[in-house]
Amino acid sequence: MARIQLDQIEKRFGDTPVLKGVSLDIQDGEFVTLVGPSGCGKSTLLRILSGLEAADSGRVVIDDRDVTGVRPADRNLAMVFQSYALYPHLTVAENMMTPLRMRDLTPVQRMPVVGPLIARGPHRDMRKQASDVAETLKITALMDRKPGQLSGGQRQRVALGRAMVRKPLAFLMDEPLSNLDAALRVHMRAELSELHRRLKATFVYVTHDQAEALTMSDRMAVMMHGDILQVGAPDEIYLDPNTLEVARFIGSPA
Ligand code: ADP
Ligand code: MG
């Protein structure tokens, strides 16, 4: 998949600096978490990576291609949101096939609710691709259901499936498990880790939950107040935090 470089990203909202020159180099196939307390700038950084937000300065480079000014649809990254953002009136199969049509659509057709109705129509290749992904995620039996008939974990899997169908360069996830109850969250952590191992895909995963970051990451970037304070493997950061702030946040032994 892709190597991702964030180079000196700065962002202000009004007078408030939210990202203060953040740099991070993510290797091809790596599972990297951006972890830190609420409000430290994680989501903003991920949105800048995905192109949903523009940085004031700095560069985003994907596989040696500078995509700083490139619109989200042309970056070929899959964003999996906190809210599942599935179309409630479409089946799982239809939900999974919508992203494939996106690039060929007009702005009106891209609109939620209205768009999929206009864009609907049989397409055998899409169905095949969607059913291959469904098999990988073990959701084949759910393909004809509507999102309302699914559990939280199943919905999460469908949202992930929809992202996978597009064969993106990387998966970007912003607190994807935060709507799930505690037991299911732990279960889904293991599932995502297993999926990462199987896909060998690049994952950039945002969470405020240090336990999640410690258990899932190849490397974690600990963020505070718009800066990355430390980047490293979970055991490295846990055992050798570089500041008191990092130690406190991670819950390192005193
Ligand atoms: P996190 O995801 O780590 O909780 P965010 O990236 O969402 O943090 O937000 C970082 C800071 O930027 C917060 O103080 C937040 O209030 C502020 N912020 C985020 N988005 C906007 C926006 N669109 N307009 C103004 N302030 C924003
Ligand atoms: Mg956030």
Automatic annotation (TrEMBL):
Report any one BP term from Gene Ontology: carbohydrate transport
- The segment(s) forming the ABC transporter domain are 4-250
Q: Name one GO molecular function term.
A: ATP hydrolysis activity
Q: Name one GO cellular component term.
A: ATP-binding cassette (ABC) transporter complex, substrate-binding subunit-containing
UniProtKB keywords? ATP-binding, Nucleotide-binding, Transport
What family does the Swiss-Prot or TrEMBL record give for this protein? Answer: Belongs to the ABC transporter superfamily.
Q: What is this protein called?
A: Glycerol-3-phosphate ABC transporter ATP-binding protein
Annotated source species: Actibacterium mucosum KCTC 23349
Q: Which residues of the full protein are shown?
A: 1 to 254 of 377
